[in-house]
Specification:
Chain B: Component of a complex that catalyzes the oxidation of glycolate to glyoxylate. Chain B: Its EC number is 1.1.99.14. The complex is a heterodimer of chains A (483) and B (428). Chain A has 18 helices and 20 strands. Chain A has 483 residues and is an alpha+beta fold. Chain A has four domains: 87 residues, Uridine Diphospho-n-acetylenolpyruvylglucosamine Reductase, domain 2, CATH 3.30.43; 118 residues, Uridine Diphospho-n-acetylenolpyruvylglucosamine Reductase, domain 3 (2-Layer Sandwich), CATH 3.30.465.10; 106 residues, 2-Layer Sandwich (Alpha-Beta Plaits), CATH 3.30.70; 79 residues, Alpha-Beta Plaits (2-Layer Sandwich). In chain A, helix 13 runs antiparallel to helix 14. Chain A starts with a helix and ends in a 7-residue tail after the last helix. Chain B is of the alpha/beta class and 428 residues long. Chain B has four domains: 88 residues, Alpha-helical ferredoxin (Fumarate Reductase Iron-sulfur Protein, Chain B, domain 2, Orthogonal Bundle), CATH 1.10.1060.10; 61 residues, no CATH class; 124 residues, 3-Layer(aba) Sandwich (Rossmann fold); 121 residues, Up-down Bundle (Glutathione S-transferase Yfyf (Class Pi), Chain A, domain 2), CATH 1.20.1050. Chain B contains 25 helices and nine strands. In chain B, the strands form two sheets. A five-stranded mixed sheet of chain B has the order 1-3-2-4-5. In chain B, strand 8, helix 24 and strand 9 form a beta-alpha-beta unit. In chain B, helix 19 crosses helix 21 and helix 23 crosses helix 24. The chains are: A alpha+beta (483), B alpha/beta (428). Chains A and B meet through helix 2, helix 9 and helix 12 of A and helix 3 and helix 4 of B.
C-alpha cells in the first residue's frame, strides 16, 4: 500500500482530478493486451503535460515507489502490466499532435497520439508515418517507441527506430532530457537508439519528433492463394532473390484466413491452405514492371487464385482483414495466445512444419499470420481455458518462441519481451549479455523503479511460477543456483 | 427497491459468460468510444466496461458505486460494435447490464425523480403536446435566457434542446392511409414516433409523400404509441417490453410487407424486439416476424429502384450517421445512396464520422457535461466541411446538433431533402 504522503504528493503533482484510486477503477488497469498476467496497481495517474509526468516520476523516485507507463494498453507481452503497490502513469491525456512540418517532413506529437492519427494529421500534406503495427488505429506512438514497434511495411521502411528523430524523455529520477536531434546524424553514443525498444524500463517518453514520408506515387496490392504454406514461402524467397524490395509481404495460413474473412469479409478464399498479400509501392514504372515479375513468380509456384486490388477501397479491405486477424481469431477459438518470433527467412517452411508438429503433439491448433518478408512469425495458439488447456497452450507458445531462437532467430520481432518472455531471455543471451543489459538499465535507473520486472529476467520473477518444479531458466543458464 | 448487498449481478438475465468471453481485450474499440475520447480512462472505454461487467459477473465487484457510474457514462452509441474485430456484442451486454443497475442500485432522490420525469413525458404524445404549448410560451417569453442562469445543469440541458415549436404541427395528425402514385410496389406501415410526431411532424409528412411517390401504400395507424426505445436503451426493461408488445399488437394485424421507421433509435430497438421477447413463449414468434419486417425509411427507399422524377438540387450536403442507424443497424450506404439519386447534390462525409454527437437517447439530459463536449466537437467537425445543409436520420441528433450548431447550418432528415427534390420545391 502507498502511504498517505505519497498519495498526496502524487495528487499535487498531477492534480487530484487526474488520480484514480477507487478499487473498481483500478481493476480495469490490471492488465494490458496480454490478459494472462494481472496485477492491480495502487494508483493510476493521468498527467496532462510533460511537467506533471516529471513531477509524478519525481515523487515515485523520492519515495521509492515503482511505476509503469501505459499507453493504450494494447501490448501483447505484458509490458504495461502494473507492479504491486506501484503507480501506473497513463499517457492517455497527452494526445495532441503539436506540429506537422511539411517542409522538413516531420511531426512533433505527444505520446498518447495513436500511430494512425499521425498519418491522418500528415495526410493533407501528402505525407504519412511509415511504421504500421496491425493495431495502428489504437496503439500509441509512446508505446511504439517503448517496443520499437514494427508492422507490415517495416520490411521496406524499417521499424520505429528508423523514424524517430528525437524525443523528450522523463528519466527515472524525474529529470527531463532530450535524446536525439533534428538531424539524422548525432554525435556521441546513440542514446535515442538505446531508449527506443527499452520497453519502458529507461524512462517515459513525453514528446516525439517523427519523420514523415511522402505518400508513394503508386501502390499495387495483390492477394495470392497457394496450395501449401511451403509454396507460399518459396514465393517470398524468390521475390527477395529477384532483387525486389516489396513494401510488404504477409502470409496467412488457413485458420487465420478463416478468422479474418469471418471478421471483415475481405474476399479471402476460405479453403486455401495459404495466402500471401504482396504490396509494391514507388514510382509507377518501377512498380508496374516489378508487379509483373511478382505475378510470374506466384504463377511459377502454383498460385491457385490471384486477386489484384482494383482500387484503394479494395486494398483497404485486404489490409483490414490482415490487420484484424489477431483479434478475429477470437471468432474461431474461445481463447488464444499471440506469439511473436523471428526466424531467418530461409527457414520459414521448416519452422512452420515444426510448429505444426508441436501443435499436434500438444493437441492444440496453431494459426499463423506473419510478416513473411522479414521472417517475423505470429503463431496464434488456440485453446479453451474452460477446458483446462491454458497451461498447455502457454507451454506450447513458449516452446515456439524458443524454437525460433534455436533456428537462429529471435524471441521477439516486434511485440517485445515484457513480462511474458523475460524468463526465456537466457535462451537467447548469455550471462554476460544479460549482465551488460542490466548495467545499461541501471545507469538510467539505479533504483530499478521504472517498469521493474520487465524485459530482463530476475530470479523472483522467473522462479515464482506455481505448479510442478521446473528448473529455473537462470538456474539452467548458471546465473543462479538453487540452495 | 432494496439495495442489493452481495456483490455481482442478480440471477435475472445477467450478461452471459459466453458474450463476455468474446472480448479478447485487444483495444480496437478505444478510439471510437466517445467517453474514451473525452477522458482517456480505461474504465470509460468499451474494453474497460466489459472488463468490469466480467468482474461483476464473477461476483468480484459490487454494482453500486464506480461500476454504475461507468456504465451510466456509456452513451450506448455502439461505435465499439462496428470497430470490434472479434464480434463482441456490446449492445447485448449493455442491454443486459442496465436493467441490473435499475433493479439493484439505489439512485439518489434527485436522479430518480429526473429519470422518472423523462419517462413520464417522452413516450407520450399527449404529454409532449402539452409540453409543446408550454415550450411555445416559454420561447415567446424568452424564458430560456433566465433558465440559463437559474436551472441546475440537467434541467438546463433539457430545456435547451427544445426546438422552435410550431403548434399547428405539434397537433396535426397524419392521414391513416396514403395511396401510392401509380401501381403498388410495396405495402408499408409507418411508425410515427413520439418526439418525431410532435416536434418533427413535417418529417413524417415528407416520409408519407416520398414513399407514396415511389409506389408504396402507406398505412399509419392512429392507435400506435411509443416503441419503447428510450426505455430499452436506459435499462427500463418493463417499460421496453410493455411498449414493444403494444407496438407489435398494433402493427401485426396490418396487411403490410414492411414496417417503416424514420427514427434511427426506434428502428434499432424494433429490430431487437425478437431478442427482447425471446424468452416469452407467447411473444417470441410474433416479435421475430415483426422485427423481420422493420426497415429504416432510407433502407426501404434504397431497395426500390427510383421511379419518381427527381428535380436537381444544387447543394453540398453533409451526412451525419446517427449511431443507432450506422452502428446499431449497419445502415450507412443506403441513406447516402438515396441522397445521391438527386441530381446536383454533393454528399460529403464528416471528419470523425463514427463519433457520437452526444444525443444518445436520454444521455444529453442525464449526462449534460460529456454530451455538451461531444456536441461542440460534432458541430466543429460539421463546420469544417462547410456544408449548405446537414442531413441526419434521427430527431435526437437533430435536436442535439441543432443546439450546438446554433443556426449556422440548416438541418434536415434525408426524406425531407428527397421530398423537396421530388416536388421540385425549395427546402422549408
Amino acid at each position: 500500500m502507498l502511504n498517505a504522503a505519497v498519495r498526496d504528493a502524487l495528487a499535487s503533482a498531477v492534480g487530484a482530478r487526474n488520480v484514480l484510486s477507487d478499487p473498481v477503477q483500478l481493476r480495469s488497469y490490471e492488465c494490458d493486451g496480454l490478459t494472462g498476467f494481472r496485477q492491480i496497481p495502487a494508483l493510476v495517474v493521468l498527467p496532462l503535460d510533460t511537467e506533471s509526468v516529471a513531477a509524478a516520476v519525481r515523487v515515485c523516485h523520492e519515495h521509492g515507489v515503482p511505476f509503469v507507463a501505459r499507453g493504450a494498453g494494447t501490448g501483447l507481452s505484458g509490458g504495461a502490466m502494473p507492479v504491486a503497490d506501484g503507480v501506473v502513469i497513463s499517457l492517455q491525456r497527452l494526445r495532441q499532435v503539436l506540429e506537422v512540418d511539411p517542409v522538413d517532413r516531420r511531426a512533433v506529437v505527444q505520446p498518447g497520439v495513436t500511430n494512425l492519427d499521425i498519418t491522418k494529421a500528415a495526410a493533407p500534406q501528402g505525407l504519412y508515418y511509415a511504421p504500421d503495427p496491425s493495431s495502428q488505429q489504437v496503439c500509441t506512438i509512446g508505446g511504439n517507441v517503448a517496443e520499437n514497434s514494427g508492422g507490415a511495411h517495416c520490411l521496406k521502411y524499417g521499424f520505429t527506430t528508423n523514424h524517430v528523430l528525437s524525443m523528450t524523455v522523463v528519466l527515472p529520477d524525474g529529470e527531463v532530457v532530450t535524446l536525439g536531434g533534428d538531424t539524422g546524424d548525432q554525435l556521441g553514443p546513440d542514446l535515442r537508439g538505446v531508449f527506443i525498444g527499452s520497453e519502458g524500463t529507461l524512462g517515459i517518453v513525453c514528446e516525439i519528433t517523427v519523420r514523415l514520408l511522402r505518400v508513394p506515387e503508386t501502390v499495387r496490392t495483390l492477394l495470392a492463394d497457394f496450395p501449401s504454406v511451403r509454396a507460399a514461402g518459396e514465393v517470398v524467397s524468390d521475390i527477395v532473390a529477384a532483387g525486389i524490395v516489396p513494401a510488404a509481404v504477409e502470409m496467412m495460413d488457413n485458420l487465420a484466413i478463416q478468422a479474418a474473412e469471418k471478421a471483415v469479409g475481405a474476399g479471402y478464399t476460405l479453403d486455401t491452405p495459404a495466402a500471401l498479400v504482396v504490396e509494391l509501392d514507388g514510382p509507377a514504372a518501377e512498380c508496374g514492371s516489378q508487379f509483373e515479375q511478382v505475378k510470374a513468380i506466384c504463377d511459377r509456384h502454383g498460385c491457385t487464385r490471384l486477386h489484384i486490388a482494383g482500387d484503394a477501397g479494395e486494398r483497404a479491405k485486404i489490409w483490414m482483414g490482415r490487420k484484424a486477424a489477431f483479434a478475429a481469431v477470437g471468432r474461431i477459438s474461445p481463447d488464444y495466445i499471440v506469439q511473436d518470433g523471428v526466424v531467418p527467412r530461409t527457414r520459414l517452411a521448416e519452422v512452420l512444419g515444426r510448429i505444426e508438429e508441436m501443435g499436434q503433439a500438444a493437441g492444440l491448433r496453431v494459426a499463423n499470420v506473419f510478416h513473411a518478408g522479414d521472417g517475423n512469425l505470429h503463431p496464434l495458439v488456440l485453446f479453451d481455458e474452460d477446458a483446462g488447456e491454458l497451461e498447455r497452450a502457454e507451454e506450447l507458445s513458449k516452446d515456439i518462441a524458443e524454437l525460433c531462437v534455436e533456428l537462429g532467430g529471435s524471441l521477439s520481432g516486434e511485440h517485445g519481451i515484457g513480462t511474458d518472455k523475460a524468463c526465456s531471455m537466457p535462451r537467447m543471451f548469455g550471462v554476460d549479455d544479460l549482465a551488460t543489459m542490466d548495467r545499461v538499465r541501471s545507469a538510467f535507473d539505479p533504483g530499478k523503479l521504472c517498469n521493474p520486472g520487465k524485459l530482463l529476467p530476475t530470479p523472483r520473477l522467473c522462479g515464482e511460477r506455481p505448479g510442478r518444479y521446473r528448473p529455473h531458466p537462470l538456474e539452467e543458464a548458471g546465473v543462479i543456483e538453487r540452495l | 427497491m432494496t439495495e442489493r448487498t452481495e456483490p455481482g449481478f442478480d440471477a435475472l438475465h445477467p450478461p452471459s459468460r459466453e458474450l463476455l468471453d468474446d472480448c479478447v481485450h485487444c483495444g480496437f474499440c478505444l478510439p471510437t468510444c466517445p467517453t474514451y475520447q473525452l477522458w482517456g480512462e480505461e474504465m470509460d472505454s468499451p474494453r474497460g466496461r466489459i472488463y468490469l461487467m466480467d468482474l461483476a459477473e464473477r461476483g468480484e465487484i459490487e454494482l453500486q458505486g464506480a461500476f454504475t457510474e461507468h456504465i451510466d457514462a456509456c452513451l450506448g452509441c455502439m461505435a465499439c460494435v462496428t470497430a470490434c474485430p472479434s464480434g463482441v456484442q456490446y449492445n447485448r451486454l449493455l442491454e443486459a447490464t442496465r436493467p441490473q443497475i435499475e433493479r439493484n442500485v439505489e439512485r439518489s432522490r434527485s436522479d430518480r425523480l429526473f429519470r422518472g420525469g423523462i419517462f413520464a413525458l417522452f413516450p407520450y404524445r399527449r404529454r409532449l403536446r402539452a409540453a409543446a404549448i408550454f415550450g411555445l410560451v416559454y420561447q415567446k417569453l424568452r424564458l430560456d435566457r433566465v433558465a440559463e442562469r437559474v436551472l441546475p445543469p440537467r434541467l438546463r440541458a433539457t430545456q435547451a434542446l427544445m426546438p422552435p415549436v410550431k403548434l399547428r404541427d405539434a397537433f396535426a395528425s397524419l392521414p391513416r392511409r396514403v395511396k401510392p402514385d401509380g401501381p403498388v410496389r410495396r405495402r408499408v406501415a409507418m411508425l410515427s414516433g413520439c418526439v418525431q410526431d410532435v416536434f418533427f411532424h413535417e418529417v413524417n409528412v415528407a416520409t408519407q409523400r416520398v414513399l407514396a411517390a415511389e409506389g408504396c401504400e402507406v398505412l399509419t395507424p392512429r392507435d400506435q404509441g411509443c416503441c419503447g426505445a428510450l426505455g430499452l436503451h436506459a435499462g427500463r426493461e418493463d417499460h421496453a417490453t410493455k411498449h414493444a408488445k403494444r407496438t407489435i399488437e398494433t402493427f401485426e394485424k396490418l396487411p403490410v410487407d414492411n414496417i417503416v421507421v424514420n427514427v434511427a433509435g426506434c428502428g434499432s430497438s424494433m429490430k431487437e424486439y425478437a431478442d427482447l421477447l425471446a424468452d416469452d413463449p407467447e411473444w417470441a414468434e410474433r416479435a421475430k416476424s415483426f422485427s423481420a419486417k422493420v426497415r429504416d425509411v432510407t433502407e426501404l427507399l434504397a431497395e426500390l429502384e427510383p421511379r419518381a422524377k427527381r428535380h436537381p438540387m444544387k447543394a453540398k450536403v453533409a451526412y451525419h450517421d446517427a449511431c443507432h442507424l450506422g452502428h446499431a443497424q449497419g445502415v450507412r450506404a443506403q441513406p447516402r445512396a438515396v441522397l445521391r439519386t438527386i441530381p446536383g447534390l454533393d454528399v460529403v462525409d464528416l471528419p470523425e464520422a463514427e463519433l457520437c454527437c452526444g444525443s444518445a437517447g436520454i444521455y444529453n439530459m442525464v449526462q449534460p457535461e460529456p454530451a455538451a463536449e461531444l456536441g461542440e466537437r460534432k458541430a466543429g467537425n460539421i463546420r469544417a466541411v462547410n456544408p449548405d445543409l446537414l442531413v441526419t436520420a434521427n430527431p435526437g441528433c437533430l435536436l442535439q446538433i441543432g443546439r450546438y450548431l446554433d443556426g449556422d447550418v440548416p438541418m434536415f432528415h434525408p426524406v425531407q431533402v428527397l421530398d423537396a427534390s421530388l416536388r421540385g420545391r425549395p427546402l422549408p
